[in-house]
Every structure is written in C-alpha cells, then in structure tokens.
Amino acid sequence: MQRITLTQYLVEQQREFERIPADLRLLIEVVARAVKAISVNVGKGAIAGVLGEAGSDNVQGEAQKRLDVVANEILLLSNEWGGHLAGMASEELPDPYPIPNRYPRGGYLLLFDPLDGSSNIDVNISVGTIFSVLRSPDGATDESAFLQPGTQQLAAGYALYGPQTLLVLTVGNGVAAFTLDREFGTWILTEPNMRIPGHTQEYAINASNARFWDPAIKRYIDELIAGREGPRGRDFNMRWVGSMVADVHRLLTRGGIFMYPRDKRDPSKPGRLRLLYEANPMGFIVEQAGGMATTGAGRLLELVPEALHQRVPVVLGSPEEVSRIGDYYREMC
Ligand code: AHG
Ligand code: MN
Ligand code: MN
Question: Is 116 a pocket residue for ligand 1 (Cβ < 6 Å)?
C-alpha cells in the first residue's frame, strides 16, 4: 500500500492545485508537529502529570486545566520562530500574541483552541485541538487584525485525540484526514475527501439547556424526539460527547447535525462556542465537506467578528437539517 504523508499531500496541494504557497505549507506542518507533542501529553495523562486543574482561570472566567496550559504553550513555542506568522491568538490568552522581536515575522495569523473538550480530559474521553489561519492585514497583530469573517480563512483544521490521533484539514479544496502513525511519528493520509453523508438520523445537542432555547430549536428537537409518530416520520438518535471536535468528527464521518444554539441562560453570551477559533474553523471544514454551518438563522462564515473571544450560536452538519432550522427561524421570528 502506498502511504501518502501529510508533507506529500501539502506539496501536491502547492504544486498541482496551487492552493497553498510554501510558507503556508510550512505553517501547517509546524502546527501538525505541535499536535504530535500535544498528543503525546494527552496519551501519557497522569504519568506526565498533566491531568487536573491548573489553578488559574482564562480570560473567559473558565478554570484552566493543566492540559489547556500545556497545549497552549506547545502551540506558541512551536510556531513563534518559523518566520511564517505575524501573530497568534488563543482561547487561553486574553490578548493576541505577536511574534517576539527576536524572530522574523511572516504574513499569517494563527488562531487556536489548544485543547477542546477540557471537561473530558480527566475522564479519558476524546479531546481535540482546533486551528484557523488568516492573512494579517499589513502585518498587523492587534485585536482588530484578527476580526475577519470566516470566509477569509486560508486553512483550518482540527486534531482529535481519540483511540487514534487524527488531523483533519482543509486548505479550501475539500477535506482530508490523516492518522498519526505513532511508531513512525508520521501523518498518513487515510481519507482524502471527507464528505458528509446525506442521510441523517443522529443529532447532537446538550439537551439540559432545553428550557433556554429559542422556539425554532425547541420545535426542531421536539420533532426529532417525536420520531416515527411525529412530522418527520422516522426515528432519530442522540449523541453528545461534549468535545466539539469529537461530535463534529462523528457527523463528518456518518452524517448528522451538531448544535450549540443561542440560549437565554446569560444574555451577555449569545452562545457557548467561540467564533474565531471554534465555530469558524469547524464551519469552514463542514462546508468543505458538503455541509452547512449557520448561527441557526444565517451563514456562520459571513459574520463580521466584533471581539477576539466573541461567542456565537452554532448549527452545523447535513444541509437538509441545517436549512430546516433556518426555515424554522424565519417562520418563527
Ligand atoms: P473548551 O473545552 O475548549 O472550553 O470547549 C468546550 C466546548 C465544546 O467542545 C463542547 O461542544 C461544549 O463546550 C460543551 O459544552 P457543555 O459542557 O455545555 O455541554
Ligand atoms: Mn473548545
Ligand atoms: Mn479549549
């Protein structure tokens, strides 16, 4: 069997499809290398002393886990010296991180959620890393440089630390998945063109928030729960891992819909997930796999961001389901 590595895939994207210039290829390779180091730490767990609370809060007031901090540092240190970046932004940093003066600066901005699904770390359930790449306007690295709509993303990807470690990537030319060969330390292309299957019978939502949902979401979920006896005329099944990466990877693999919709728990937070380093990269990947990504009502990637850590409602997955929710929003508003 011929094994295509991440490097070969990226070189081909550069050469044949002219999708990516050499410095963007380098950027993606460096992120992929950092992800390997995070994977080793996730895999060692208690042996490496990386489980448990870090004893600090992030800018969003969430308690940081040790692995949140470790993964953040791995990504910063791996990416700061290569000369391809102007700056970085992370869920775990209050402000943008400009490339230190001792290193050359490049033209890209890297945004990441270093460890997605933090609440699952200590119970040995799959977690991930999410990243997004933008071009820096004139080399700027202040907050406003990062406030670009998701349509401007040049690349996006996620790593899934599960039974296997996977890297799922788009450079705007479909979605490819790579599996980490742990013995060789190489990423092997295992799915060259991920497409969301059309037929859906699974949905993912944190149903404990039902009393806070918009009427459109409530109606949609009620109809799924009604199953064969309801207006949909068939049964649906529910799954909620609680790590967005794992929940979205499942729908990319076998179809479905993922929702963390707007709810009225806390009026200052229009959603749970963060626009720039969770919703936009995952939305870009889902669209590139033939799916749809919205806020419920409108296309996610067209939202013009107002703040680095802005939260946003997220509905993504199979087009028929996502557009049905859009219809319900239009009918019920
Ligand atoms: P993070 O660990 O980066 O803060 O993200 C967790 C997110 C996302 O992965 C998941 O879908 C969601 O939070 C789960 O939220 P609930 O705990 O409210 O279900
Ligand atoms: Mn997250
Ligand atoms: Mn996180």
Answer: yes
Which has more pLDDT, 137 or 199? 137
The pick from 158, 209, 258, 272 for probing ligand 1's pocket by mutation, whose C-beta has the most ligand atoms within 8 angstroms, reads: 272
H helices of the chain, in order, are 6-15, 22-44, 66-79, 143-146, 215-226, 244-254, 280-288, 319-332
Nearest ligand to the CA atom of 248 = 1
Least Cα distance to 68 among 53, 84, 48 occurs for 53
Domain locations along the chain: 6-191, 202-332
- The CA 112 to ligand 2 mean position distance, Å, reads 9
What is the topology classification, in CATH, of domain 202-332? D-Maltodextrin-Binding Protein; domain 2 (3.40.190)
pLDDT, tens digit (0-9, with 9 covering 90-100), for 81-101: 999 999 999 999 999 999 999
Note the Cα 225 to chain centre separation in Å.
27
Tell me, which fold does domain 6-191 have in CATH? Fructose-1,6-Bisphosphatase; Chain A, domain 1 (3.30.540)
3-state helix, strand and coil shares in percent for the chain, rounded to the nearest 5: 40, 25, 35
119 Cα nearest atom in ligand 1: 2
Give the number of the atom of ligand 1 that is nearest the alpha carbon of residue 245: 9
Per-residue pLDDT reduced to its tens digit, 236-279: 999 999 999 999 999 999 999 999 999 999 988 889 999 999 99
Neighbouring CB atoms inside 10 A of 209's CB total: 15
How many Cβ atoms sit within 10 Å of the Cβ of residue 93?
17
> Ligand 1, residues 59, 64, 75, 119: which to mutate, most atoms within 8 A of Cβ?
119
* Alpha-carbon span 190 to 194, nearest angstrom: 10
- Give the environment of ion ligand 3: residues with CB less than 5 A: 91, 113, 115-116
